[in-house]
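Reply to thread "Modeling small-molecule complexes from scratch"

Following up on the discussion above, here's a worked example others can learn from. I took a protein sequence and the SMILES for adenosine-5'-triphosphate and predicted the complex. Inputs first:
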Amino acid sequence: MLEVRGVSTRYGQISMLRNVSVTLREGEIACLLGPNGAGKTTLIRTILGIVHPVEGSVVFRGERIDSLKTNQIVKRGIGVVPEGRRIFPKMTAEENLRMGAFAEWGTSEVAGRLEQIFDRFPRLRERRRQIAATMSGGEQAMLAIGRALMGRPKLLLLDEPSLGLSPLLVEQIFEMIQAINRQGTTVFLVEQNARKTLALAHHGYLLQKGEIVGAGTAAELGESDIVRHAYLRA
Amino acid sequence: MTLIGVWVVELGLFVLVVAALLAERPIALGATVAAIGIVAVVARSSARVWRWVTTSFLTHRTGALAGAAVLALVLPFFLRASPYWTFIATMALMYVTIGQGLNFQMGTAGVINLAGAAFAGLGGYTVGLLTVRLGFPPWLGLLIGPLIAVAVGALLFIPILKVRGHYLALVTIAFGFIFNILMNNLEFTGGPQGIKNIPTLRLFGYAFTTPPQLLGMTLPSHANFYYAALVMAALVTWLAWRLYNSWVGLTLNTLRDDEIAAKCSGVSVARYKLLAFSIGNFFIGLGGAFYAVMVGFVSPPDFDFGYSLVMVSVIILGGLDSIPGIILGACLLIPLPERFRFLHEYRLLLYGAAIVLMLLFRPRGLWPATVRRYGLREPAASFGAAGGLR
Ligand SMILES: Nc1ncnc2c1ncn2[C@@H]1O[C@H](COP(=O)(O)OP(=O)(O)OP(=O)(O)O)[C@@H](O)[C@H]1O
Ligand SMILES: [Mg+2]
């Protein structure tokens, strides 16, 4: 479904990603692990066209997207919960959600999708007219996920959606991701919590200092020395 | 409160405002101003009274609007002894028009524009050049002027696109000064003298310089422009309201809030910024073109940087992103220094103080933006009630 082939990126003079290749299969949950500063967010930004690669290519459903603009890329069916969530702070919860279906504006689709999101996150229905910045961290996380789902993405990119949430909420978010995936959305999940993430994912990648240093099924990755030493402390 | 009650409140405010404008002797002026102050304090001191009044106005929205429209229509009759105040009222309406445009840029889309006066000047000078140099009728100038403002704005937009925040403010300030220097030095714009003798507006043979006879009364000729400005401000406000409440307004809000998140939702940031900038410049240019037709001449000092600040003060005082707020801001800030002549010299100081005080104590303005309603029947809750930030 999505293929990142030998991508390198740089921020000015500093090279960040080096020859990174990632393949996401349709219908799976893949995860990306790596320490702070490894370049995980950079990879997500590269897929979204916020950063353009200096080498390599990104192919989504048979089409090269690495030179497209972000808004063109997301219209092809990629939804994102960005790092730090980036909800629209001064807009209401409902307006945030509506913006998620920007491509469908004005069609009767939007109202129906809104209802579906509210069914999935009843708390958002209660708070639909609240200004997003005043919502709690957990509500904001749900809002960010809901907004990404409003566009009915075929591929959902999540960059640390559970950051800063209580264990109970983290659990809920993970269950939600699983449910979303069961309904047919391919998921690419960036997380710090290796144990939980590997339990959820089918495949995983390990990124360190801008390079992929491990890849395989979640089980294989969980067994590998590098992951066990660095993340699982086993 | 019933609809009649709403109208009584409106009428009471109207009487106070007219009295404050026309009071000649210091005692009378002091009394009316004190009365307005007392009304304001009483209304705001009790949350219950304020809630009661605002919800009444919201439930009788259409009636309240109709009442306000009638009062705006009869205002020139009360001001008929004073062409000067009729003129100031017209200026306030012109600033409503300009304010709606600037608010679209700065309030709704977060695109800073500190060259409002220059864009108004583009509209005004276009009228001057077309009518005086080329012999076009003024009404055609009124149409083309705003388009020139939009076109020049679009050209300026290319370097602006990549600039944000403070730098954007600097670029627009620079543009304002360049405009002024050009107008001062170019031959065909008349240099420091500007362009004089712009012919007055004629509609179906009716010249706007003839004092209108209405309902058996003779109004000053300025009343013609007052009514024209009323139509213009009402149309622009209605249009701004429709746009603001449509997906366009919402999309522009996302640019103000978070550009990256907007992109990730599929918004073409460049395209929508240009749209906001152009809509704004159209309204601002229209205001400037109207000014040129009304006063009959344009010169560089009419469009200097100070007026850009006046425009910004209007929208900050009224409430960024708040369409009714802009009306309030213009109607307060434009007549005030005219009423208190001693303030006139310190006008810019007053505007500066107004901005600073607002940003300190009421950053969302006197009439803050409310939540959009999406066809829901309930009255719009105020941002304040939702604990909002705006
Ligand atoms: N715009 C930028 N300009 C320069 N350097 C950048 C920029 N964005 C990120 N970097 C650097 O690139 C490196 C990788 O950043 P990135 O955000 O991709 O890491 P990450 O793996 O997502 O880390 P974390 O887990 O902390 O979110 C960091 O060292 C960061 O400082
Ligand atoms: Mg990151």
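What I'd highlight from this example: Chain A touches chain B through 32 residues (CB under 8 Å). Residues 218 and 233 of chain A are 17 Å apart (CA to CA). Questions welcome below.
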